Amino acid sequence: VQLQASGGGLVQAGGSLRLSCAASGRTGSRYMAWFRQTPGKERDFVAAINWASGNTNYGDSVKGRFTISRDKVKNTMYLQMISLKPEDTAVYYCAADPRIISSSIYRHEHYAYWGQGTQVTVSS
């Protein structure tokens, strides 16, 4: 599975961005997810979506502001981000795994496939 993330950029606080993650190759992931990372810190869970059912999960810091979705036809996952804050600044990575179980979706080490990351910078 190859994942291609895009859509990052520079935005002012309160603004919005939409990230995309296109999957190709041997797709068929059970879950896809977004993580984010700042220098010197661990990769943090942002949101995940069950590919078949569309059920979603969010990290506490983004609930109510970020929305994860997927387009099965395009094999693409999205992250709509609104009301962005400076603390949302990070490199955002998309991830996928065909066998991950629901209790493991919050930890980056359980995902087999990763995109290259896209930088999101929120200025104050």
Elements, N to C (H/E): EEEEEEEEEEE
How would a textbook summarize the main sheet?
Answer: 7 strands, mixed
Distance between the termini: 37 Å
Helical region count? 0
In one word, what is the shape? globular
Helix/strand-derived class? mainly beta
Total number of strands: 11
Entry summary:
The protein is mostly beta strands and 124 residues long. Helix content is 0%, strand content 50%.
Provide a descriptive summary of the structure in words:
There is one protein chain. With 124 residues, this protein is mainly beta. Helix content is 0%, strand content 50%. Strands 2, 4, 5, 6, 9, 10 and 11 form a seven-stranded mixed sheet that branches. Strands 1-3-8-7 form a four-stranded antiparallel sheet, with no helix packed on it. The radius of gyration is 13 Å and the shape is globular.
